[in-house]
Structure formats: structure tokens, C-alpha cells
Write a structure and sequence with these properties.
The complex is a heterodimer. Chain A is mainly α. Chain A has a domain at 2-88. Chain A is built from two helices and two strands, in the order H-H-E-E. Chain A has helices at residues 2-19, 29-128; strands at 142-146, 149-158. A two-stranded antiparallel ribbon of chain A has the order 1-2. In chain A, helix 1 (2-19) runs antiparallel to helix 2 (29-128). In chain A, 6% of the residues are buried. Chain B has a single domain, classed as Nuclear Transport Factor 2, Chain: A, CATH 3.10.450. Helix content of chain B is 47%, strand content 27%. Chain B is built from five helices and four strands. Chain B has a four-stranded antiparallel beta sheet with strand order 1-2-3-4. In chain B, a hairpin with a 3-residue loop joins strand 2 and strand 3 (103-110). Chain B starts with a helix and ends with a strand. The chains are: A mainly alpha, B alpha+beta. Chain A binds chain B through residues 127, 130-131, 133-134, 137-138, 141, 151-161, and chain B through 52, 56, 59-61, 64, 67-68, 71, 90, 92, 105, 107, 109, 116-128.
Chain lengths: 161, 128
């Protein structure tokens, strides 16, 4: 690539050199030598200019690559930031799940306590109500264990036992 | 001869003490329970409340006595009480009320004056 461009630049310089009005051929050796030196200097200048342009393009390419690399790095950094944010959100979700599970356990315990409380109240009520009419007896029947069989007992009467 | 007389005296004293004990403290309680249960069976409101303390008397209604009397009659003829247990700490006594076709448990609690502070009858739910 670089060689092709150098050849092209040299050819261009040579063609430009041909366009320079040639001095009349004089049988002057010093003038001929001067013309040759001027031609070589012009060609060298053109090559230098071409190379400068090329280098500018390379520099531009490198800057572009650097920018792309920077953008790529930024994208990678952004990705890592997003990933960290996701990890944090995931950890938060896990914490929330644990909190919900804890609260669920608390609710279950409270429900159990309420059930136990209601059960004990129901049993004591069957004995402590002033009187239990038969129409409500089935709804508030208290069960007592008699050996291996449950015997439903209904309490009538007055006062607390 | 004197020895025999002394033995008889001691035996009589022991029997008297045992009688005062009331057969495990159930004498008065069983009498009250039996009287009250008979009154309930006979649907006798005044008889039911005769030995109740003042607080318990206010809780009794004729309807309640009638309903409980009906429940007892479903068990047949009343045939007295049998002692089951007592709780000295609560001054509470439990008896089995025997009927011709079944039985019910009667629980009685006496106050410090010997009056009935609670009277409850436990019947199987199947008798409803």
C-alpha cells in the first residue's frame, strides 16, 4: 500500500517536472547541472508533501481508531455499569424475597397464634357461657378425648367451672 | 374388759371422724348436686336455685331449666348420682347422673359459704 502510494507520488512528481518549461538547451554544463539539481529538489519536495499527506491520513486513521477504541471502551464500561446495576437490582430482589419470606413466616405464626387463641376461647366458652341452648349446641360443641375415641360433649348449666 | 371398752371407744371415734370427713368431701356436695339435679329434672325453677349463690341465681331462667329438663328426660328416668372426682383446689366435684337410658356428667363448684357457685351438666352431643 505504502509502496504503491510512493510510486504514484514519484510518477506524479516526474510528470510535473516535465511540465516545467525546459530551459533552452545550452551548451552550458553548469546550467545543466543546476537544472538537474532543481528538478531533484522539486521532486523531493513533492514526495515530502505527499508523504506528509499520507502521514496525516494515517494519523487521522489512528485518531479514528483511537476514538473507536474509546467508544468501544465506553460501551464496555457502560455495559459493565449496566451489569453492575443489574447485579445490584438482582441482589435487591433477593433481599426483597427474603423479606417477603420472613414476613410470610411472621404472618403464619400470628395466624397460628390466633387459631390457638380462638380454639382455647372456644373450649373455655363452651364451659363458661351461662347456658348453652340446644339450638346452638352443634355449633359450639366441645370435643373431649375419651381413650382413643373423641366424644363430643355439650355443656349446659350456669356458672364457670 | 377395760381394753375392750377402750378399743370400742377408739373405733367409734374413728368412725365418727370418718363420717365427718364426708367420704372424701363429697357428702354435702353430692347432696346439693342430687337435689339440684332432681329439681332440674322436674323442671322446678325454685328448687334449682334453692342452693345457688346470689350471683348464680340471677343467671337462671325458666326456659333454660325447661330445656335442660327435656335433655335429661331424653335419657330416661333419673336414678341418682355417682361420684367421679373432685378438685379440692377449686372446690369442684364431678358426678355421673345415671338415667335409665344413659348418663350425664354433673359438675358442681361450691363457694366458701357452701353454696353452689357453678352447676353444669355435660351431655353427649348425640343426645341433641
Amino acid at each position: 500500500m505504502f509502496i504503491k502510494r510512493a510510486l504514484a507520488g514519484t510518477t506524479l512528481a516526474a510528470m510535473l517536472a516535465l511540465l516545467v518549461p525546459a530551459a533552452p538547451a545550452l551548451a552550458d554544463g553548469a546550467a545543466s547541472t543546476r537544472n538537474i539539481i532543481l528538478g531533484i529538489g522539486a521532486a523531493t519536495y513533492l514526495v515530502i508533501q505527499h508523504n506528509r499527506k499520507v502521514h496525516e491520513k494515517y494519523a487521522e486513521y489512528d485518531r479514528r481508531q483511537a476514538e473507536l477504541q474509546s467508544e468501544n471502551n465506553d460501551a464496555w464500561a457502560a455495559y459493565r455499569s449496566e451489569k453492575n446495576a443489574y447485579s445490584n437490582a438482582l441482589a435487591e430482589v433477593v433481599d426483597l424475597k427474603r423479606e417477603v419470606a420472613y414476613q410470610h413466616n411472621v404472618v403464619q405464626q400470628l395466624r397460628h397464634q390466633v387459631a390457638m387463641e380462638n380454639r382455647s376461647r372456644g373450649q373455655s366458652r363452651s364451659f363458661q357461657t351461662a347456658y348453652k341452648p340446644p339450638s346452638h349446641a352443634k355449633a359450639s360443641t366441645s370435643r373431649r378425648a375419651a381413650s382413643s375415641n373423641d366424644v363430643a360433649m355439650v355443656s349446659y348449666g350456669w356458672g364457670q367451672i | 374388759m377395760r381394753n375392750v371398752a377402750a378399743l370400742v371407744s377408739c373405733g367409734s371415734f374413728a368412725l365418727a371422724l370418718a363420717a365427718c370427713g364426708g367420704g372424701g368431701g363429697t357428702g354435702q356436695a353430692q347432696s346439693l348436686a342430687d337435689t339440684t339435679t332432681k329439681a332440674v329434672y322436674n323442671d322446678d325453677l325454685s328448687g334449682v336455685t334453692a342452693h345457688f349463690d346470689d350471683q348464680l341465681k340471677g343467671q337462671v331462667t325458666r326456659t333454660q331449666v325447661g330445656i335442660l329438663s327435656d335433655q335429661m328426660h331424653k335419657q330416661g328416668d333419673y336414678r341418682g348420682l355417682s361420684f367421679l372426682s373432685n378438685d379440692p383446689n377449686k372446690n369442684e366435684y364431678t358426678y355421673r347422673a345415671n338415667f335409665s337410658n344413659g348418663s350425664m356428667n354433673v359438675v358442681l363448684r361450691l363457694d366458701e359459704n357452701g353454696e353452689i357457685a357453678a352447676y353444669r351438666v355435660l351431655a353427649p352431643a348425640s343426645t341433641q
